[in-house]
Amino acid sequence: MTFGRTGKNGRLFSKRRIDTLTDGVFAFAMTLLVTGLDIPTLNGMITNGTIDQILVGLVPDFLHYIVAFILLANFWWAHHERSHYIHAMDRNMIFLNMVSLIFIGLIPFSTNLVGDFPLNAHAAIIFELNLFFLGFLSVLQWNQVLKNPHCVKPDENSGEIRVSRDDAMIFPVLSLVGIALALSAISWSVFVYAVAPAYIIAVSWWETKYHRHPANVT
Predict the structure, then answer these.
(1) Where are the domains of the chain?
(2) What are 2's strand-pairing partners?
(3) Mean per-residue pLDDT for 109-122?
């Protein structure tokens, strides 16, 4: 379904197909993350000690898998939240969403890289740059929602959208901190993202309790 021409960006388009595509890319990326947990080829006699060594060797991969999965879940939730506020998308919104899918699709690669080389600064920086661009694009998408009130449902509060935009800044900020730590030769810099879930949970609780009313289910 397309909508009539509105504003400088021309036609408005239904959000359903882009939501379906985005959900599919997120699901595929989150599934691919598990492929980073590679079990090496074993030769000769296999003992309990051999299995224990393999499991210990997989610890960095497993920890990075958990971190990446949680971060992807957070970005998916942000997309779902934006979709709640809007009734249609213009070309700029669709373009930014499509560009963000590029970096979502790269998350399994950058996660596997940093999992295989957890002490390598370049591997950590690639992972953190991946998340920086993904977080920055999320902020830009929230800005587009704020700049295009004709795309927003008429009963929605722009103040709530602005709060969500500000909350999304945590990912670019944490990414820059992680890159600075990696450049300073501090190992495991990617675990700076462990701050994000705690921050999001705390902020969501605060806003729900003191600022926001429950949103309608969409």
Answers:
(1) 2-210
(2) 13
(3) 88
